[in-house]
Design brief:
Oligomer: homodimer
Strand content of chain A: 15-25%
Largest interface: A-B, 68 and 68 residues
Number of strands of chain A: 25
Helix content of chain A: 25-40%
Strand order of the largest sheet of chain A: 5-2-1-9-21-20
């Protein structure tokens, strides 16, 4: 322990894709690593929508950080909320304690942005955390229970109208999954309503859904969504939100359950570095991921704005975060060796989005897939990358079961988990 | 539908073991059945302690009532909280609506009793609902996280001392599972504490643990608990509880996390029937499960006091509830046929309790088992009875994985699921 304490100390804030990859690469190296996160688990965010739509359980897509990193003697995990960073003193503070570092990797990601209308968050939750997902699952399932009980036709219709704001991958996945649940999973379970009557409306301000994808795949995604009965509205914005519905192009659409999948804002910790940030709060990093004047500080993943490769910021997706995490770790090792940090290059293997059973789009740059083949590719990649062997088997089994039977395994409405994250009481 | 509305209407309140068995038996019979529950799922309560100790996920031990009963055209599921029963008008009320019945089966079970000290509930949660289990899991895991961070030795010891009040099956299961988690699952995951140093204290006011079991099995359970390092205190009571600990025999034991597994009180709906109730609120039923003067009303499971077979009330265990549920359904069918309800006889196949890996006791009346054989029997019975095929496979897989690796799959600390059960918003 004495000897270890002399070793250079690397602090990684954030145990997401970027932070975790960085930590693993620094495991068993001659330095001390502290990974700090607000939660005790690494979350496999790309499958969060499956928790929100009752296909998977929270534990299926979350792996305890301590368990994932336990084999590395030199890595310590700390459950804490970092509230300030002092880059000159090389210290971070959690309120309870201060932690000094020699190298810092900041990987705290992003949250939803409601474009200044923070009061909309309660009306239309986003989908970033397990808590978000469980809350959306509750609203979704409760909407059908509520519709089953009431007799007022207008109120029943409003309860069975689901509006998703934002037609990127998350919005498309949510819209498809909700449509599937209504049409295939719940369809025979009610006596007074027909769940297949549910309306699912996807609202995208851009001219097409999945606007980050090539146009042919956007068109294919639109067709696949429509085949599930999703009503897609493009080129329009949600102008106002209330408990009862939302306003689009001056028209009011009654809808009790609304989902927010539009716009991100970077973690506020980015503003503590003294480095320039962009409009959504992302840190403008150098081409080696360090920040101006502080080569010992690197910013990665959704929190970083990295425009040096394509002229535009790299997208906020897990492959970017993972590659940057490994690169930042390599930079630390280089600096320890007296070498300079290296320029980062993103190796883009393509992107995919899933829409439903046998429905997806995949852009592998040299070839575009849609439908069944894209869906199989999506399944394969997501199983492979899901952290932890147990989770992979459990998820595979539940997907197989859901595929064969159209049943969803996690249809629980749970309420009032009062507990906040605080010392045990 | 017109024709169906003419059929006699059976209302079953409570979708636990008793209510669900009764409903299934009435499925596809020439009557209408409404099953009313506060939650949208049937909970497999005997495995709740495995959710509390991070071995299983909530969805593994809960099956949506609608899905379980979907194949019976004549059964309707209603998600609602019944707040009054009028046995003369033959109506129940949920606040939102009134439901008339021809036959009523009341199966709303029991909650914890804190013997008048309701303020202890926050200090030492019990284990009846999924919310309870997730809250206990959070406290348990947070205790180790907290101990890892603080430096004060006394506070650290208090955080790592777990007190379980009540040495019945639930208390014994919780004590064994917490000891196992500390010694085998978490043991290598921390840098500043050794989780195996955790103290687990089981407090039982009776002279022995598992006092409902034969003496030789109590003695065996005690030995098995001690082999896991559990400190068992018998013949003593928790005299006072505070945030910081509890008082036993005038001595204060510092302990942040406390679990309540002592004492039950019956659901308050039992008091609406006009029938006599016992000290813990259970309804004194006739020997055919009906209540005096109202053959159309039957009470089953934990809510019923049935002393007609042994002179003492039958125990509050699932086999009693299930047999009574089927019997009550048969009584309804008999009365519809113009016959009289029949006397209920409980067929007691024995009882079991598990303590940990390879550790359990089983009393099959004609033979007593303990250790590995009892544990295998316990596993077998619980897998067989776990409702729903998917759950069985998922649970089996997780148990096999946990057995081979000592890993727990659901080590999540989740916080502040704000949402209450109310219309979607």
């Amino acid at each position: 322990m004495q000897e270890q304490a002399q070793r250079p100390h690397v602090v990684i804030i954030g145990g997401g894709f970027g932070g975790l990859e960085g930590a693993k690469k620094l495991g068993s190296q001659p330095l001390r690593v502290t990974v700090i996160d607000r939660t005790n688990y690494h979350l496999f965010q790309p499958l969060l929508y499956q928790v929100a739509t009752a296909a998977l359980s929270p534990a299926d897509i979350a792996a305890p950080l301590r368990a994932v990193l336990t084999k590395h003697e030199n890595i310590e995990v700390m459950l804490a909320d970092v509230n300030s960073i002092d880059v000159n003193a090389r210290k971070i503070s959690t309120g309870e304690q201060e932690v000094a570092y020699d190298y810092l990797i900041l990987a705290t990601g992003s949250r939803h942005s409601y474009f200044g209308k923070d009061e909309w968050e309660k009306l239309a939750p986003g989908l970033k955390s397990l808590e978000d997902a469980v809350e959306l699952r509750r609203r979704l399932l409760m909407a059908f229970e509520y519709a089953e009980k009431i007799t007022d036709e207008a109120a029943r219709k409003a309860a069975m109208t689901f509006a998703i704001v934002g037609g990127g991958p998350t919005g498309v996945e949510m819209a498809g999954a909700i449509a599937e649940i209504a049409r295939y999973t719940l369809d025979k379970d009610f006596k007074h309503i027909n769940p297949s009557d549910a309306r699912v409306i996807l609202i995208e301000s851009d001219g097409r859904v999945l606007s980050g994808f090539p146009e042919d795949l956007s068109a294919s995604a639109l067709k696949q969504l429509q085949s599930l009965g999703v009503e897609v509205m493009t080129g329009v914005r949600a102008e106002n939100l209330t408990e009862e519905g939302l306003e689009v192009k001056g028209q009011f659409i009654p809808s009790r359950v609304k989902v927010w999948a539009a716009g991100n804002t970077a973690s506020s910790l980015g503003k503590h570095l003294g480095a320039p940030v962009d409009r959504s709060g992302r840190v403008m990093v150098n081409d080696d991921l360090t920040i101006p004047g502080h080569p010992e500080v690197q910013v990665i993943g959704d929190l970083a704005n990295f425009p040096h490769q394509t002229g535009k910021p790299l997208p906020g997706v897990s492959p970017v975060a993972m590659q940057q995490g490994r690169h930042a770790a390599a930079n630390v090792l280089a600096m320890l060796d007296g070498r300079r940090p290296q320029r980062f290059w993103y190796w883009d293997k393509g992107t995919m989005a899933t829409i439903g059973r046998n429905k997806a789009v995949a852009d592998l740059r040299w070839v575009h897939f849609s439908g069944f083949i894209a869906w199989m590719a999506w399944l394969f990649v997501h199983i492979i990358f899901l952290v932890g062997f147990r989770n992979r088997v459990a998820v595979l089994l539940q997907w197989a079961w859901a595929y064969l039977t159209f049943n969803k395994g996690a249809r629980l409405i749970t309420r009032n988990f009062q507990a906040e994250l605080r010392p045990p009481a």
